[in-house]
Design goal:
Number of helices: 23
Radius of gyration: 29 Å
CATH topology of the largest domain: Hypothetical protein af1432
Distance between the termini: 100 Å
Strand order of the largest sheet: 3-4-5-2-1-8-9
Largest sheet: 7 strands, mixed
Structural class: alpha+beta
């Protein structure tokens, strides 16, 4: 009777043979040069789960220079960027690979970079892996592939539990980023976390400070883009790790006064995130900008919270404060400027719909809604709908109908007036010709005035726009 390990080995070998047959020639290259080669880590886990991708990780006893020489004969392209840490990357057809020399690495207490020592055994290499489900390997340079599972990763994979090969405290001390990886794998695999890991993260959360902001950002992004980010975020908050990397999130767990009722902002935020994810098909699929905006849209509430005499709570202008806080946090995490600007703008705009009331916006207000959202209009539709989390079914249906009507009006106006291409009726050259002026800041001010008028009243036509421009100039032009 086959054991779970036997079945896992058969699944992994079958997946690799059928989906990545080119690895046979890669293994042959290492074997002929006198070295070992094993598929390792996440790809082995994914192969067992039946979802092997085109990004494969290998480990070998060959040193980086020898690995590079072998890969140059096999691959279309070879990169040496990670050679310092024992990793050589390559691409062959549609398959990307990384081959890393057996190693053990650890961080000094005040260092952001690991010290790397190359090893001579795959057993030592697997022991230094982050979690047991990532510490399995498939040795490819033997007569027949050998499945290696020294830490019962197959059983943990079957039970859906995350454990470390050795002591969790030792693992997280060696590489504190593994604490965030735990949250990421919980979100990706929908696993539970071993109590030892939870205790270790809780006691060692401060150690994440030695990890660069870029690496923290990358792990946070992978977690947010997973199928179940709530699970990972919950782990970060409950262990105190979120206070070190995203302190705005746990601060949303506002103390609730029995006389001043309001929503649980933290739970509301996670619900908004899940609702936004459920509507991402409107954005073409998984979307980092909408997920970040949903996560951060209410972070201004703790700073703007005021208790209303007689009961109730207000958060006036939390969207303005939250937009500024979003920029600060995302800059600290080294997100790119384009993503920062898009997310902070969505946070700033997320309450705009509620000025729509029950549907009495003017055409000019709808035009401004479109203009302010610009390329983020569909994102704003998703965020606004996700933000309506009331348990009052009648109110929820009313809000949905109201937003339906707003989207219909937007579609109608966009079709009638080509609002995606909205411009004043006079361009800069025409403004200078009519006013007989040279390029200057006044031209920009005149252009903005005509644009505002266009947004307010719709298309004016050249004749009316010229009249309005001359009136504006009489008041705002230079006085002689």
């Amino acid at each position: 009777m086959k054991t779970p390990k036997d079945l896992a080995a058969a699944l992994a070998i079958s997946a690799l043979t059928e989906q990545a047959p080119i690895t046979q020639s890669l293994a042959a290259g290492f074997k002929s040069a006198g070295y070992t080669l094993a598929l390792v880590g996440g790809p082995v886990r994914d192969a067992v789960l039946g979802r092997l991708g085109n990004d494969l990780d290998f480990t070998t006893n060959a040193r980086p220079d020898a690995t590079k020489a072998i890969l140059k004969k096999w691959a279309d392209t070879v990169w040496e960027i990670g050679a310092e840490f024992g990793t050589i990357a390559a691409k062959h057809g549609d398959t990307s690979i990384e081959v890393t020399t057996y190693r053990s690495e650890k961080y000094d207490p005040d260092s952001r970079k690991p010290d790397v020592d190359f090893g001579d055994s795959i057993e030592g290499d697997l022991f230094r892996r982050d979690f047991t489900v990532n510490a399995m390997a498939l040795e490819l340079t033997t007569a027949n592939p050998i499945f290696i599972d020294l830490f019962n990763g197959v059983n943990d994979l079957a039970q859906g539990i995350l454990r470390t090969p050795g002591k969790a405290t030792d693992s997280f001390s060696d590489d504190p980023l593994r604490m965030m990886r735990a949250a990421r794998f919980v979100s990706q695999l929908k696993f539970t976390v071993d109590d030892e890991i939870v205790a270790a993260i809780t006691s060692m959360a401060d150690r994440i400070s030695i990890i660069s902001a870029e690496r923290v950002r990358d792990e946070l992004t992978k977690m947010l883009m997973s199928p179940n980010p709530r699970l990972g975020l919950t782990l970060l908050v409950e262990t105190g790790l979120a206070e070190k990397i995203l302190p705005e999130l746990p601060k949303l767990r506002l103390e609730i006064d029995e006389h001043h009722h309001h929503k649980d902002v933290y739970e509301h935020t996670l619900t908004v995130l899940e609702k936004a994810i459920s509507m991402e098909d409107r954005l073409g699929g998984p979307n980092l900008v909408i997920r970040l905006a949903a996560l951060l849209h209410d972070i201004g509430k703790p700073r703007t919270r005021e208790l209303i005499p007689g009961g109730g709570v207000s958060f006036h202008h939390h969207e303005v404060v939250g937009s500024r806080m979003t920029k600060e946090r995302m800059r600290a995490l080294r997100f790119d400027n384009h993503t920062i600007n898009d997310v902070s703008q969505l946070v700033f705009l997320h309450l705009r719909f509620h000025g729509y009331g029950s549907g009495e916006w003017t055409d000019s207000a709808v035009r401004r809604y479109i203009r302010d959202a610009e390329h983020l209009l569909d994102h704003l539709h998703v965020l606004t709908r996700a933000d309506c989390t009331t348990r009052n079914q009648r109110k929820a249906e009313m809000l949905a109908r109201t937003y339906d009507s707003l989207e219909e009006r937007i579609a109608t106006l966009k079709e009638q007036e080509e609002l995606d291409k909205i411009r004043p009726d006079l361009d800069g050259l025409a403004i200078m010709d009519i006013l007989q002026i040279k390029p200057s800041p006044l031209v920009g001010k005149a252009y903005q005035y005509l644009l505002d008028l266009r947004m307010e009243e719709g298309p004016l036509g050249v004749e009316r726009a010229t009249e309005e421009l001359i009136k504006w100039w009489e008041v705002n032009g230079p006085k002689i």
